[in-house]
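[recover] target loaded
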């Protein structure tokens, strides 16, 4: 239906045969159409295809309100906001009403008065789907006025009685009528406000300043919460828990490739005039750092290790590689192992430590980095493949590397040490000097962490020796 063809009055809408669907039926209809068409239901969401998404689909098919439980950085908000794509592109609403009204069945006094006055000539507007989503972060200072509504003193001053429904200024939830409303961090909502929310979800009425108003709202209510707060803090009233039909548990990526997909999709890009190539093993190292952090006893697991930590680490590593390319005049940006210390400031701000000793935090992160490098190295090589390289170092060879050493110097090392170049080629590092340099550093650090090479700090550089 084009803009010119769309009905502009209630009468034209009725004559067109348009049928107003409740929001849950509308979402279910569009979900079924997307599934049949083979469309991606939640673009940009990785690692949930076999776990979280089936539960969301079932909840929508069942017409149930949903609460998402998960630690920070598990895409709860992104999934909730993407539910808007299950709404129709546009729907008709009564023009001039304070909340989005069904043209055939208005629920407010103002809407009913408009229909009584103009009948089929009452004008309608078309509301796009992105205007049908409302969101509120739960904080202790939220009031019923914010969510439900409040008496408007200006309307009282104009001569209306307090008992007149027309004196009410509606809050966020009524203004999202015929749409989706999300409450983030639900346990932080005061219990007296939860009671008001309960009434809206089930009893469909609420008292404002002692005046009882019936609001049969058509709203799909979604919420998010941290599992610890939701289950242990005891600040969610039991009847409200009971009103949410589905409780969907999110999780961190279970496979390293999913974490890498998220990093690549979400990181801030390097300027387009630089040629960027991130070796697969460097991506795996960044993802592995987060995976190890999620199992570390030194890191508070109740607060979680967000995927945002992986993204920030990836960006910091790329930033130092870019800085090196600028300083050394290289066009190709390829991260190396010597860039990894620069993820420490990023990760420090993304996790909470169990220890409070000064300086201990950096040591914990350095151990995570070393653990990630050796884990990825041992997946890439067995030590027997590199025995020839180790023997050359035992014979007296020493190599200095560093984050600001030009790539050509590392590449020269790879060609001089017998057995090193085949290992570089196995990593796909023979394409350019920058990629060769990254492979050389990875191999040398992996051998050191496997106790086959010694390592010393020399000024701002690192020396590997037998």
């Amino acid at each position: 239906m084009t803009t010119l063809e769309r009905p502009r009055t209630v009468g034209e809408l009725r004559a067109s045969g348009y049928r107003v669907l409740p929001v849950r039926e509308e979402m279910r209809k569009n979900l079924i159409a997307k599934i049949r068409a083979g469309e991606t239901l939640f673009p940009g969401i990785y690692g949930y295809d076999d776990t979280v998404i089936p539960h969301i689909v079932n909840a929508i098919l069942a017409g149930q309100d949903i609460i998402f439980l998960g630690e920070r950085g598990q895409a709860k908000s992104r999934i909730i906001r993407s539910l808007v794509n299950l709404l129709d592109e546009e729907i008709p609403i009564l023009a001039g009403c304070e909340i989005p009204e069904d043209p055939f069945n208005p629920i407010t006094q103002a809407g009913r008065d408009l229909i009584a006055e103009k009948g089929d000539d009452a004008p309608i507007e078309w509301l796009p789907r992105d205007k049908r989503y409302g969101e509120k972060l739960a904080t202790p200072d939220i009031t019923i006025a914010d969510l439900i509504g409040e008496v408007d003193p200006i309307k009282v001053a104009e001569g209306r009685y307090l008992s007149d429904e027309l004196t009410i200024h509606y809050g966020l939830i009524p203004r999202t009528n015929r749409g989706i409303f999300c409450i983030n961090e639900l346990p932080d909502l005061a219990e007296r406000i939860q009671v008001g929310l309960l009434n809206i979800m089930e009893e469909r009425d609420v008292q404002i300043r002692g005046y009882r108003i019936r609001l049969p709202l058509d709203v799909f209510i979604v919420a998010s919460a941290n599992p610890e707060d939701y289950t242990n803090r005891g600040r969610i009233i039991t009847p409200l828990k009971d009103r949410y039909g589905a409780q969907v548990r999110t999780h961190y990526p279970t496979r390293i490739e999913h974490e890498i997909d998220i990093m690549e999709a979400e990181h801030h890009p390097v300027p387009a005039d630089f040629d960027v190539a991130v070796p697969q093993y460097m991506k795996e190292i960044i993802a592995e750092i987060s995976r190890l952090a999620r199992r570390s006893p030194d890191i508070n697991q109740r607060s979680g290790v967000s995927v945002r930590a992986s993204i920030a680490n990836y960006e910091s590593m790329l930033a130092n590689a870019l800085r090196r390319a600028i300083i050394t005049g290289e066009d190709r940006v390829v991260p190396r192992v010597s860039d990894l210390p620069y993820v420490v400031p990023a990760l420090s701000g993304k996790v909470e430590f169990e220890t409070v000793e000064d300086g201990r935090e950096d040591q914990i992160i350095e151990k995570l980095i070393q653990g990630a490098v050796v884990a990825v190295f041992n997946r890439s090589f067995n030590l027997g493949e590199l025995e020839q390289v180790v023997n050359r170092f035992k014979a007296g060879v020493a190599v200095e590397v560093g984050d600001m050493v030009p790539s050509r110097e590392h590449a020269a090392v790879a060609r001089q040490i017998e057995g090193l170049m085949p290992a570089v080629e196995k990593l796909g590092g023979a394409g350019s000097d920058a990629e060769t340099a990254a492979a050389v550093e990875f191999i040398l650090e992996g051998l050191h962490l496997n106790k086959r090479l010694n390592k010393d700090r020399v000024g701002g550089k690192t020396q590997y020796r037998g």
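[recover] notes: The longest strand covers residues 219-225.
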